[in-house]
Amino acid sequence: MTGDLPGWKQVFVEDFSAGDVPLGGFPGPLYSAKWSAGYKDGTPDTAAQRSGKKARSGYYPSKVLSVRNGALDWYLHSENGISMGAAPTPRIPNASSNPPRANSLLHGRYSVRYRGDAIAGFKTAWLLWPDSGVWPRDGEVDFPEGDLASIIYGAAHFARNGRDAFEKLDSDQYVTSWHVATMEWSPGRIEFFLDGQSLGVSTKAPKTPMHLILQTESCLTGCPAPAARGHLSLDWISVWVPA
Known about the structure:
Layout: E1 8-14, H1 28-31, E2 35-36, E3 43-44, H2 46-51, E4 57-59, H3 61-64, E5 65-68, E6 71-79, E7 82-85, E8 89-90, E9 104-105, E10 108-116, E11 122-130, E12 140-147, E13 151-160, E14 163-174, E15 179-186, E16 189-194, E17 197-202, E18 210-218, E19 230-242
Parallel strand pairs: 4-7
Antiparallel strand pairs: 1-19, 2-8, 3-4, 5-6, 6-7, 6-19, 9-18, 10-15, 10-19, 11-12, 11-18, 12-13, 13-14, 15-16, 16-17
């Protein structure tokens, strides 16, 4: 987790050892220098944006995020018929964009140790999103991705005839055990690793600066049951740039 690697220089690491933060208080004074809570309460998530209807799901960091037992915790649940996720964002120092912006990189190595409860209807889509905001033209990379009751996979999105297409690389693992998920983004390729084993390489790698968002949401393959609830935990995260 800590330190440079052959070909990679570490630029960000977080293990949430600074102390606990109560539900709704993240990032708070302990973590605000290195984190943002991401989208504000009530922001529609991907499923709500696609449906174009009144949101049944969305981002609610004040209802979801805390730090407990040395990990960033998502309390995934529903209130008043709305399933709630959150998308915290690390502030990764860099100079990849012009002018420089926090959390923007052109190529990098991203690694997380995480686990979750098997809550059908909630999913991780921890992703690299283009700084340009032009999608699908400038691509997207998701890893770890998957419904919390299904297998973990990685996906590299790209534009085909102006529409979204993607390459999907599956694992045979579930989130209910601790896993280390790593993506290595280099010119012309992105490789996905789970617990040190390669899931494969996609040549559909982005060519423009991207920023990392730990997007955790619901309702993309069916919404969770009203009483469904549980936790997703991030033990640590580490980021490197090409040395």
